[in-house]
Design goal:
Keywords (chain B): Electron transport, Iron, Iron-sulfur, Metal-binding, Transport
Largest interface: A-B, 39 and 32 residues
Radius of gyration of chain B: 14 Å
CATH architecture of the largest domain in chain A: 3-Layer(bba) Sandwich
Distance between the termini of chain B: 23 Å
Distance between the termini of chain A: 48 Å
Shape of chain B: elongated
Number of strands of chain A: 29
CATH architecture of chain B: 2-Layer Sandwich
Organism (chain B): Dictyobacter vulcani
InterPro entries (chain B): Fe-S_cluster_ET
CATH superfamily of the largest domain in chain A: FAD/NAD(P)-binding domain
Structural class of chain B: alpha+beta
Strand order of the largest sheet of chain A: 3-2-1-7-21-20
Oligomer: heterodimer
CATH topology of the largest domain in chain A: FAD/NAD(P)-binding domain
Strand content of chain B: 15-25%
Helix content of chain A: 10-25%
Largest sheet of chain A: 6 strands, mixed
CATH class of chain B: Alpha Beta
GO molecular function (chain B): iron-sulfur cluster binding; metal ion binding
Protein name (chain B): Ferredoxin
């Protein structure tokens, strides 16, 4: 045993963390940083120690980063008991007990639920099990896809033009592979950035030789007698001959194991209050059980306390910190989670970054730089206030926009930037009507 | 040794690339690619890179294996 101070906090307490990825690890680190001296157990359904997911759709696939180099840095001595390759299968809130897939039960004093999301699968009856159809969520997915792409296949089809789909399209072009990107909406990144910004991404992709099919969906994948993928049938009646398909149609929240626990968990995530404490189905706070990361649905102060789940790296880190801090605090000292979402995505050599909630914006305007050169900042407005900003290769401005968002600054913004475009014009951001209330 | 870079915070100044060009690479104007698991011979250069980062986005930590090994030694 390590010989740290016997005056450490809560020496006899056992905190269990379910989910051994970014949020789970950062929470354990935050507990130790705050001198938690009790026991920490981390349960993860994957056999791997925590690893970083963003490279899995980027430079793991290009071959720049070997998959063995993706494990996350441990930034504190977490002194945890790791139970890897084992899933939590049920939670008994009354008994403070978890059931595990290896048949064991685990008692806890406090619990952090950070079970994240998984890739939405493609239905088997429409070709989901064919050899050549891939998802990208975990290490094995990325490794297998890397090996396939390295063998220089014929045309690759990507179903879904969200961030993952666009990043993989970029990788394919970098590897000089023919690629077709199929997106249901009018532009790539329609759901994340809206069609106004999305049309800029569409142009970028077409300039790089992506065969972009918008307002189109995949009906089915078809294979040969040996079960190898050979073609995709699209909703416009066209047929594309392909060797590889990548399904990038978003993520599902890993909450099924909480059915029967009485917690407010469904396919949209696990609901918590502003202190990251989970709620039960009646909306009451459950003492001693917290949540963080992709799976958590929390009241977002930027949009009137609407519950949202934010499936970004930065949210996993920040909410883990918030939950861990509150786990070790008296209720009077709880800190509210006032996170402003942020993300980055690199594609076709361009770094796309955002702060705030773009998909809550009604309007958008380019405020700095040049769209033609893919070097600009655009601000999103909602009811006369700035709600988000996105940058293309101009990330260093975002901190200033973050402050404007925090302050509830007016939209259109009053800037005195030297690189302001001559006629700044606000236009509809162009989001799907449904996404606004998701 | 393991490295983590907060790419939300990173602004692509590229100071880290000067400090250790084989671990940190700028692709395009501001896309940073880095090797989270460089060999120990990079330690000094990586520490220099972390210190040089104008926005302090580089964190140096340990690997899972390093921590597990230590905890087993103490058992």
């Amino acid at each position: 045993m390590s010989n740290h101070s016997s005056q450490g906090l809560r020496k006899d307490e056992h905190i269990v963390i379910v989910g051994a990825s970014l949020a789970g690890l950062r929470a354990a680190e935050a507990l130790r940083r705050r001198d938690f001296a009790g026991q920490i157990t981390i349960v993860g359904d994957e056999k791997y120690a925590p690893y970083d997911r963003p490279p899995l759709s980027k430079h793991v696939l290009t071959g720049h980063l070997p998959i063995e180099h993706t494990p996350l840095a441990m930034l504190e001595d977490v002194r945890a008991t790791w139970i890897l390759g084992v899933a939590a299968t049920a939670l008994d809130v009354e008994q403070r007990q978890l059931s595990l897939s290896n048949g064991e039960r685990l008692h806890f004093d406090q619990l952090l639920i950070a079970t994240g999301t998984r890739a939405r699968p493609w239905p088997e009856e429409r070709g989901g099990k064919l050899d050549g159809v891939f998802l990208i969520r975990d290490r094995d997915d990325s490794q297998q896809l890397r090996e396939r792409l390295a063998r220089k296949p014929g045309r690759v089809l990507i179903a879904g033009g969200g961030f993952i789909g666009c990043e993989v399209a970029s990788v394919c072009r970098e590897l000089d592979l023919e690629v077709t990107l199929v997106e249901r909406g009018p532009t790539p990144l329609y759901g994340a950035l809206g069609s106004s910004m999305g049309s800029i991404v569409a142009r970028l992709q077409q300039q790089h030789g992506v065969d972009l099919r918008t307002r189109t969906t995949v009906e089915s994948f078809e294979g040969d007698a040996a079960g190898r993928l050979c073609r995709a049938r699209l909703s416009d009646g066209s047929v594309v001959e392909i060797d590889v398909a990548i399904v990038a149609l978003g993520a599902l929240h890993n909450t099924e194991w909480l059915q029967g626990s009485g917690l407010a968990a469904d396919e949209r995530g696990l609901v918590c209050d502003t202190y990251s404490r989970v709620l039960d189905a009646q909306g009451q706070v459950v003492e001693g059980i917290f949540t963080a990361g992709d799976v958590a649905r929390w009241p977002q102060h930027l949009c009137d306390g609407d519950l949202i789940a934010v499936e970004h790296w930065g949210n996993a880190v920040d909410q883990a910190e918030n939950a861990a801090g509150n786990m070790l605090s008296a209720e009077t000292d709880y800190r509210a989670y006032k996170h402003i979402p942020a993300f980055w995505s690199s594609q076709f050599g361009i770094n796309i970054k955002a702060v705030g909630l773009p998909n809550r914006g009604d309007e958008v305007m380019v405020t700095q730089g040049s769209v033609e050169r893919y070097r600009f900042v655009a601000a999103y407005g909602r009811q006369g206030r700035i709600i988000a900003a996105v940058s293309f290769d101009q990330g260093r401005w975002l901190e200033a926009y973050n402050t404007l968002i925090e302050e509830g600054a007016t939209y259109p913004p009053q800037l005195a930037a030297a690189d302001q475009p001559e006629n700044m014009q606000s236009q509809p951001a162009g989001f799907p009507a449904m996404a606004r209330h998701a | 040794m393991r490295i983590s870079v907060d790419l939300n915070r990173c602004q692509g100044y590229g100071q880290c690339c000067f400090a250790d060009p084989s671990v940190f690479k700028l692709r395009g104007e501001e896309v940073l690619e880095f090797d989270p698991a460089p060999g120990d011979e990079h330690r000094l250069k990586v520490i220099r890179a972390a210190k040089a980062c104008p926005v302090q986005a580089i964190y140096i930590g340990e690997s899972y294996e390093e921590q597990e090994e230590r905890s087993h030694r103490h058992e």
